[in-house]
Amino acid sequence: MSDINIKITDREGVTHDVIAPTDMSMNLMEIIRSYELAEEGTIGVCGGMAMCASCQVYVINDPGLEPMGTEEDAMLAEAFHVQDNSRLGCQLHIADAMEGLEVEIAPYP
């Protein structure tokens, strides 16, 4: 079993230090949901299919994220509140290389 440490700032501006398992095939959206860091029904609306951008986060510290895929890039091109450091939490699969990741949850449309 392997865990990593992530800092997540919620939509109220409160920063949470969370522990995320790397051996459970979870993504960042699922971590945010499991820690209840966003109001129910405002994150992962599409179920993690990169079709709604409700799990959009702003990456503050990138310790080594995988590059953005074409589906994620296309969804962010149509989303609200997009910044240069925007990513979809559902597309960020928890891995050892993410140790020290810091993100802020984007506003919900």
UniProtKB/TrEMBL annotation:
Keywords, alphabetical: 2Fe-2S, Iron, Iron-sulfur, Metal-binding
GO MF terms held by the record: 2 iron, 2 sulfur cluster binding; electron transfer activity; metal ion binding
Entry's Gene Ontology BP terms: P450-containing electron transport chain
InterPro entries cross-referenced by the UniProt entry: 2Fe-2S_ferredoxin-like_sf, Adrenodoxin-like, Beta-grasp_dom_sf
Protein name: Ferredoxin
Organism field: Chryseobacterium contaminans
Organism placement in taxonomy: Bacteria, Pseudomonadati, Bacteroidota, Flavobacteriia, Flavobacteriales
